[in-house]
Each structure stands twice: as C-alpha cells, then as structure tokens.
Amino acid sequence: MRRTLLAVLGLLLAGSLVAASPSDAPGGGLTRALDNRDAFAMPAPGLTSKELRDFSFGNRVFNTNWAVAPASVDAFDGLGPIFNRVSCSGCHLRDGRGRPPVDGEDEMLSSLVRLGVPGKDAVGGPRPHPRYGDQLGDRAIPGVAPEGKVRIAWREQAGRYPDGTTYSLRSPRITFEDLAYGPLGRKLQTSLRVAPAVVGMGLLDAIPEADLLAAQDPDDRDGDGISGRVNRVWDPVARAEAVGRLGWKANAANSTAQSAAAAHGDMGLSTSLFPDENCMPGQTDCLAAPRGGDGPDLRDAHLQKLVFYLQVLAVPDRRRVAPAQEARGEAVFQDTGCASCHTPRQRTGADASPARLAGQAFMPYTDLLLHDMGPGLADGRPDFLASGREWRTAPLWGLGLVPTTNGHSFYLHDGRARSLEEAVLWHGGEGQASRDRFKALSRADREALLAFLRSL
Ligand code: HEC
Ligand code: HEC
Questions:
Q1: In terms of pTM, does the model score above 0.90?
Q2: Measured from the CB, is residue 266 less than 6 Å from ligand 1?
Q3: Of 164, 275, 364, 455, whose CA is between 20 and 30 Å from 334?
C-alpha cells in the first residue's frame, strides 16, 4: 500500500500545467493540474496524512480483484456468485470512463445492460425481470451458470449539416445469447450503460437539495422548451426517498448508495445496505453457493473508505487545447443554449461532509436534472421518476481527458457517440433546439465549441 501512495505522490510532482483562475476551478478546492493517463485517479490537494492513508485504503478497495469465498484474505472475498467484473476498476479503469463493445464478438468489459419489466419495485424503482433481475450478469463463480451474454450490433444512419457537411451516427441493437435461466420474454426492457468517470462525486453529493429543486421547471414556465425535473429515488442509507444525483438517469441518491449498489449488482458483494446475495429465486446454484464469512462481503468500515476515496478524488483542471478557439467556443456554448441544461457552476452546502467539500464553487456543467432527450436516445426503461426518454444532464468536466485516461472517445450513456461532435448531434427532445442551433453554426464556430468541450 505504501508503494501506491509513493507512486501517487510521484505522479503529482511530475505535472506541469497551467492552472485556471481559482474562481473557475472545475472542482473548487479539489482541483489539481493533471493531464496524464492517471488524471482521474489522484487525491485532492491538501489531504492530511491520515486522510491520505484513508484515500490509499479506499484506492485499494476500488482496485482489488475480489476472490471467490472462502479465500485466504477474508476481507476481500465473497465475489458473485453471479457478477459482471471482479473489481470496481474493471469497469471504471483508472477511475475513468468505460466503453461499449466494438461489435458482436467483443465482450462487455466496462459497460452493462440493465433489465426490467413494466411496473415498479417495492421502493418505486425499476421492476426487476423475474428470472434475471435488474441487470444481466455475464460472469459467475465455478459451479454457477452465468446468466448469459450480451451482443451489441451497431446500425449507422446518415445525417447532414445545413452547410452540406455529412456525418454518420450509430446506435446499438442489443441481443442476448446463452441464456441460462429461461426465456427473457416479450415484456423485457433493456438499457445499455457505460461506466462514467468517478471524479467529483463528493461535490455532486453536496449540492444543497434546495438548489436542485429551485432549478426545476417541470411545466416550462419560462417557455424555453426545456423542463428539467429532479429524479426521486430510494436512498438505502437514509432509508427514505431522496433526490437522485448519480447514474445516467440520476437513479442513485449519493456516492454511498451508488457504491453499495455497484458492489451488489456489478460484483455480487453484500453490504450492510444490501445484505442478501444477488440471486433471483429460480437461481438455485447461486442461492446455495458458499458465502464470504458471516458479515457482509464488503464491510462497513471498508465501504466508508471506498466512498471517502471517491469523494476526494481530485478534479483535473482545464487544459489549453486551442487557446485561440476556447473563448469563442465558450461564448457559442452559451449562445446555442447548452448552458440551459449543462449549468456551468454549482456550489456545495456550508455543512457538507467531509469538511473539505463544504462551501466549494465548482464547474460540473450539469443541473443534475432529468430531461426528455427524444426518441433517438430513449431506452424505454423507466428508472424511478425518469421516463424511458429522460436522462440526467451529463456533467461535462473531464470529458476532454477521456482519450488520455481511457484511450477512447466514446460518449453518451451507451457510448454510441464516437466523438464529442456525435454526442451533440444526438441531442433531441428538449435538447433539439440547441442541437439545431449547433448544426446551423459556421464550421469555425462548431470547431470552437468542440475545442471548448475538449478543454474541460
Ligand atoms: C460492470 C461494470 C461496473 C462495475 C464493476 C462498477 N461500476 Fe460503477 N458504474 C457502472 C455503470 C454502467 C454506471 C452507470 C450506472 C447507471 O446509470 O445506472 C456506474 C456508475 C457509478 C457511479 C456514479 C457515477 C456518476 O457520474 O454518476 C459511481 C460513483 C460508481 N459507479 C462507483 C462504483 C464502485 C465504487 C464500484 C465497485 C464497488 C463500481 N462502480 C463498480 C459500471 C460499473
Ligand atoms: C435539454 C437539456 C440539454 C441541452 C440543451 C444540451 N444538453 Fe448535452 N446532454 C444532456 C443530457 C440529458 C445528456 C445525456 C444524454 C445521454 O447520455 O443519453 C447530455 C450529454 C451531452 C454530452 C455527452 C456527455 C457524456 O458524458 O457522454 C455532451 C458532449 C453534451 N451533452 C454537450 C452539449 C452541448 C455542446 C450542447 C449545446 C449545443 C448541449 N449538450 C445541450 C442535456 C442537454
């Protein structure tokens, strides 16, 4: 563990970047000048040595390959029985963004398919499929059958800018193979989602609920064609309903709820929040498999350090990618209405915890609200209040670093966009007017806008 910490400190000293003015720092006091492949994986500046030790332990929990129970290291066993990956970092590689499969033969390595059937579960969330639950588990421990395999095929559709420039957009077709627990049936709902980067989670957790509520405009009173609203989800920590903040549909209330749900749903690890194994009633081998000791697989003390780690990851500062274009691009971003949803600045509450998150002004470029993005992006799978066409405004911080940190430039909830430009071109519904203004721009202004996005 000490080696990890030294490596982290060494990388920090190696950085030599221009810092933005403090008032525009993307992560407030958690901002750090970073532009290498570990740009999402560094601690915020100024952590005490005790905090750095907790960060380092949380880092270990995030990167550990969990073992099948019983194993020699009891603290890190209990994987599965059915699961998607053996570690958090398996999907959030270097704390960054996942990608969808390249084609039908490619494996699902950093994305997953959520499942459901019409209706709601006991706490108002998506109703799980009776045989397969709320997510297809494509891996399992020895002696238990994985649920099946996901196959993605891409369909292209051509488009054209008013100036005659052509483009092509792709969208996924999802099919399943090797289903081990019977047919999926005709009422099946699916939602392909890639793993987002995990920086800035503590700041998003700490925006006062009142600020999110005040930004809503469900009946579009101001007549701008944009009517954001909060998702309301079940928070297993408070055991109460709460405003949703994380996940592509703002389907999780906070970093603790999201991390415990990920441990359970993606890796098959029980916690005090989700004490049962993630097996459906008909999955007898899964239900009979040995458990990882008496308590939860992921202990409370370790879950807390994992969450602390996520909350104090540094937010990378902006980089100069094309100085001549960025300022123009930022003005175009305002003029085309992007900022109506991608709210540049947010502020955390004065009583946020841990204390270093309190009173921070930061630049996530999101209102955290749900918006109807039209039929093109719809998944048809409601998630708490979010309809099958609604998505949370994606934060834009760090987007330009994804090629550096994760070696690809796939964007949107299912990674269908192969560039930032394609991500913008997919905006429909409440985002259509803004998208059309983008399409009508001169080529120079379009490129300036994209340069601005790459600098975030
Ligand atoms: C199988 C891949 C996979 C694994 C393994 C995984 N995640 Fe995720 N993670 C995702 C996906 C996909 C989402 C988006 C979920 C959604 O929209 O419902 C996500 C979302 C998140 C978010 C919210 C990010 C945001 O911007 O809203 C956090 C935090 C997170 N995961 C933490 C974790 C932790 C901690 C672990 C390990 C315990 C973990 N994840 C394991 C795929 C994964
Ligand atoms: C009506 C609200 C709205 C407006 C207006 C809007 N967006 Fe978005 N944007 C969203 C939502 C919601 C998503 C997530 C959609 C998804 O993943 O399916 C998103 C996603 C994105 C993404 C991909 C982010 C990621 O993490 O993959 C980019 C880039 C983006 N928007 C840029 C823009 C730009 C540039 C404009 C202005 C031309 C704009 N948006 C206008 C709501 C909006």
A1: yes
A2: yes
A3: 164
